[in-house]
Each structure stands twice: as structure tokens, then as C-alpha cells.
Write a structure and sequence with these properties.
By secondary structure, the protein is an all-alpha fold. The chain folds into three domains: 400 residues, Na+/H+ antiporter like fold (Up-down Bundle), CATH 1.20.1530; 57 residues; 40 residues. The chain is built from 22 helices and no strands. The model has no long low-confidence stretch (mean pLDDT 85).
């Protein structure tokens, strides 16, 4: 009872914070981090000592899995070069620059532990990137690159952190050891992820009950990450690979009812976990400050230097990576030279999050031979990077995006493409109906033909302006009023005892499904 109470309190505060953010038109991650920072100093407020294993094994896998499920595999493949340049190249570059800066300021610290901190602060957070980038309304390709980077970069950073930690505690780490570690972590993660996609894809295809599909979907990320970690492979890579493959094949694996239920379930899980994660990050401030004993002047200098290194290395890497690659004719032909606004906005979107804090808390307690080192300082630096990038860059990202005036995706072109494909789909549906028309009454066939025509017309209507109400919008408005009237009748019949509760539930379910379709069609 006592251990459950703080969890309920944190979830309630996270929900209220997200609601407040929407009311104020702010980004929920920033509001929740600031709220957590304030609450960490409230006397008597429950405090949580964040367990790195809980974050890396319990919270990160489901968030990565649902992000991978929703990632377009064709878009991921089309942008694989910039994604890998950021997720691998930039992470390594940032880690070594931050490690070098820290080692220059604190030469008594071994370079290995400085590099470990660099690996901790190098990767932008998957949760933050997805939560902020989509809300800001960045161009589709920019969002794809940021999401792709955030799916892969944790694996790079955690492998580097593992190697640096081994060197820190006195293990001999040579080139061959590093190569073996990378191969085992990355290659093993890919193999386990692919195997997980095959196994769980087979199970999804055999399951017809939406509830069982939902339960299996929840089990998948944990089963994959536990298997990978047990075999000393990268659980992050394994979960991402499984999510990408299953997400790409999901329309063939799940029934319509299962897809609706699984989608609604993961939206709820992501909402709660994201809110909880950002709140917990803020709540760690008091714990982080508790063991800090550095002189104020030295602390400010080191903190500023690390923040500057983290911020500037992203831009120093991005511009050459963006434009030097286009000196290669093959790359230039396939991918036009982008405006400088694109690397600027991608550079500004490098928010860190809970993975950075969890990795910092997982730093070794001592150096080789039990020698102590200022571990609390390194945890503070990681925490400062999180707060600076989330609150500073995250809060100003919408303003930067507006000032840059990035070319937005053309909604008319999207609607035109959708209408063209819908017309092809309608033609295929009409041909199938013509083949089966003899097996049903003419009235049923005519009704189905009208339904296909209405769907086609609705797709073309989206190409029109928004000044006038379209026939589909008028239909939706009037049908909504009719549904409300039907609900009132069923509720009154239940209250008067003319129908049992089960009849009311079924009727409401049918009306709710139709209303949800109307709302989706009206978007």
C-alpha cells in the first residue's frame, strides 16, 4: 500500500501537468520537468531514487517499441545516411569531445571515466525527440531523421559507455576487445530483434482475440530486451529491430479490431510513461545536489564547459555531415542540397532525457583498485545537460522553428496523393463487388456502391478550400446530432427498465465506433 501510493501520486501529477501544458499551449515534457524540479524541494513530498535498471529495462523498451512500431520503414531506409551519421557518428564525436573537455578541466580524472560521461550525455532522448518534434510541427523528413536518430543512438552510447566503464575499473580494453563488444552488442541485438519479429509475428498472425493481441503486444518489448540482455547483446537494438519489422507488417498480422485496441492501448501507455519519465527527471534534483561538494566557482566553470561542448558539437558535426556528403555525385543526385535551416533545426532539437540520467546513475562507484572519484559531480553534469537541453532548447524550439520558417509539407499534395490512391482502392473495391454481386440482393449491392463512391468523394473534397462546409462535413455534423439523439433514447430505455444494461452497452459501442469514424474522417 505504501509503495503504491507514490506511484499513483506521480501518475496523477503527470496527468495534471500534461493537461496544464495543453491548456497553456506549452510542451508537456518541459512543464513536467519544471514541475518535478519545483516539487523536489517541497517538504514531505515523496522522493524517488531512480533505479537505472528500472529505466533501461522497464521504461525505455516499451517506449522504444511503440516509437519503432509507428516509424515508417521506407522513410527510415530513405534517410538511413543522415540517421546513422547522427546516431553513430555524432554520438561518438560528442562523447570524445565532452570527455576531452572534462579531462582538460580535471586532469586528475582518468580519460576513461571522462569518456564514460561523454557517452552518457551524447545521445538525444527518444522520448523527448518524439514528444517535442511532432508537437512543434516540423517537416516530415526532419521528424523522420530525429526519430530515426533517437531509435539508434542509445545503442551506440550504451556500447561506448560499457567499453569506457570496463577501462575505468581496470579491465584491459584493446582494439580487439572493442570490436568484439560492438559485434556482440550490435550484431547480437540485430539477430535477436529479427528473431523476435519472426516469433511474435507468427503468434500475432495466429491470434484472433484482440485482448490476447493486446497482451502479447505488451509482452514483446520486455521479452526481447530480457533475451538480449541475458545474452549480453544490445536490448535497445533488439527492441528497435523487432518494432520496425512488426510495425511494417502490422496490417497483415493483426485484425482490424486488434489494431484499434492495440493502438489505443499504446497511446495510453506512452502518455503515462512519458509523463512519468519527465516528472521523475525533475524530481531527482534534490538527490543530485545532496552529495555534491565541489566549490561553487569550479562547479559553474565545469558545468558551463560541458554544456557548451554538448551544444556546440552537434552543430559542428551537422554542417559538414550535411554538405560534405553532397560532394559525392551519387549522394548529390539522389538527395538535393538542403537549406541551412534544416541542420540548424535538427541541431536545436538535441534534447536529452531520462536515458542520460539513468546511464549517469549507472556509472561505477569507484575507479580501478577502489580509488574514489567525484561521481556526484558527473551525475550533476548529466542532470544539468538534461535540464538545459530540455527546458532551454525544448522550450525555444517552437520559436526557432517559426523564425526559420521551414518549408512545411504541402497538405494539398498530401491530399492529392491520398485521393489518387483512394480512387485506385475504390476501383479495386468496385471490381471485387462486381465479381460477388450475384451472391447478394441488389439493394445491398447498390448500398455498397454508394459507400465506395462516398469514400472517394470525401478524399477529393479535402482538396477544396476550408471556407465552405463540404458535403462530407455536413454529413458528419448532422449524423453526430442523430447519434446523440439515439444515445438519449437508449439511455432512457435502460433507466426505465425496458432494456437490460447489456443491450445499452452494445448499442453504445456501435454508436461510439461510428462516432470515432466520423471524427477521424473530419480531421
Amino acid at each position: 500500500m505504501e509503495s503504491l501510493f507514490p506511484v499513483v501520486v506521480f501518475l496523477a501529477i503527470a496527468t495534471l501537468g500534461a493537461a496544464l501544458a495543453r491548456r497553456l499551449g506549452l510542451l508537456a515534457p518541459i512543464v513536467l520537468v519544471v514541475l518535478g524540479l519545483a516539487l523536489s524541494f517541497v517538504p514531505g513530498f515523496p522522493q524517488v531514487e531512480l533505479d537505472p535498471e528500472l529505466v533501461l529495462i522497464g521504461i525505455l523498451p516499451p517506449l522504444l517499441y511503440v516509437a519503432a512500431l509507428e516509424t515508417s520503414v521506407p522513410a527510415f531506409k530513405n534517410n538511413i545516411r543522415p540517421i546513422l551519421l547522427l546516431a553513430v557518428g555524432l554520438v561518438l564525436f560528442t562523447a570524445f569531445v565532452v570527455g576531452l573537455v572534462l579531462h582538460l578541466l580535471l586532469p586528475q580524472l582518468p580519460f576513461a571515466i571522462c569518456l564514460a560521461l561523454g557517452a552518457v550525455v551524447a545521445p538525444p532522448d527518444a522520448v523527448a525527440a518524439t514528444a517535442v518534434a511532432r508537437r512543434v510541427g516540423l517537416p516530415r523528413r526532419v521528424v523522420t531523421i530525429l526519430e530515426g536518430e533517437s531509435l539508434v543512438n542509445d545503442a551506440t552510447a550504451l556500447v561506448l559507455l560499457r567499453v569506457a566503464t570496463l577501462a575505468t575499473v581496470g579491465s584491459a580494453v584493446g582494439t580487439a576487445d572493442v570490436a568484439i563488444e560492438v559485434l556482440r552488442s550490435t550484431g547480437g541485438g540485430i539477430l535477436i530483434g529479427a528473431l523476435g519479429a519472426v516469433v511474435f509475428g507468427f503468434l500475432h498472425r495466429r491470434i484472433t482475440d484482440p485482448l490476447l493481441d493486446n497482451a502479447l503486444s505488451l509482452i514483446i518489448p520486455f521479452a526481447v530486451v530480457f533475451t538480449a540482455e541475458h545474452l549480453h547483446a544490445s536490448g535497445v537494438v533488439a527492441v528497435v529491430v523487432t518494432g520496425l519489422v512488426l510495425g511494417h507488417k502490422l496490417p497483415q498480422l493483426l485484425s482490424a479490431a486488434s489494431r484499434l485496441q492495440v493502438g489505443a492501448f499504446w497511446r495510453l501507455v506512452r502518455f503515462l510513461l512519458e509523463g512519468l519519465v519527465f516528472l521523475l527527471v525533475g524530481l531527482q534534483l534534490r538527490e543530485v545536489l545532496r552529495d555534491l561538494d565541489e566549490p561553487a566557482g569550479s562547479l559553474i566553470l565545469i558545468t558551463f564547459a560541458v554544456l557548451a561542448a554538448v551544444f556546440l558539437t552537434r552543430f559542428v558535426w551537422l554542417f559538414p555531415a550535411t554538405y560534405l556528403a553532397r560532394l559525392v555525385p551519387r549522394v548529390r543526385r539522389r538527395d538535393a542540397r538542403p537549406s541551412p535551416k534544416v541542420p540548424i533545426i535538427i541541431g536545436w532539437a538535441g534534447m536529452r532525457g531520462v536515458v542520460t540520467l539513468a546511464a549517469a546513475l549507472a556509472l561505477p562507484l569507484t575507479l580501478a583498485d577502489g580509488e574514489p572519484y567525484p561521481r556526484a559531480l558527473l551525475i550533476w553534469l548529466a542532470f544539468a545537460v538534461i535540464v538545459f537541453t530540455l527546458v532551454g532548447q525544448g522550450a525555444t524550439l517552437p520559436l526557432v522553428a517559426r523564425r526559420l520558417k521551414l518549408p512545411q509539407d504541402d497538405p494539398v499534395q498530401d491530399a492529392l496523393s491520398a485521393a489518387g490512391v483512394q480512387q485506385q482502392a475504390s476501383r479495386a473495391a468496385q471490381e471485387r463487388l462486381d465479381e460477388l454481386a450475384d451472391s447478394a440482393p441488389d439493394a445491398v449491392v447498390d448500398r455498397l456502391r454508394r459507400a465506395v463512391e462516398d469514400r472517394t468523394n470525401m478524399a477529393w473534397e479535402r482538396l477544396g478550400g476550408t471556407e465552405r462546409e463540404t458535403p462530407s462535413q455536413a454529413y458528419g455534423r448532422l449524423r453526430q446530432e442523430m447519434i446523440d439523439a439515439e444515445r438519449d433514447v437508449f439511455r432512457a430505455a435502460r433507466d426505465s427498465g425496458r432494456i437490460p444494461e447489456e443491450v445499452l452497452v452494445q448499442a453504445y459501442r456501435d454508436l461510439d465506433l461510428e462516432e470515432s469514424l466520423l471524427r477521424e474522417a473530419g480531421k
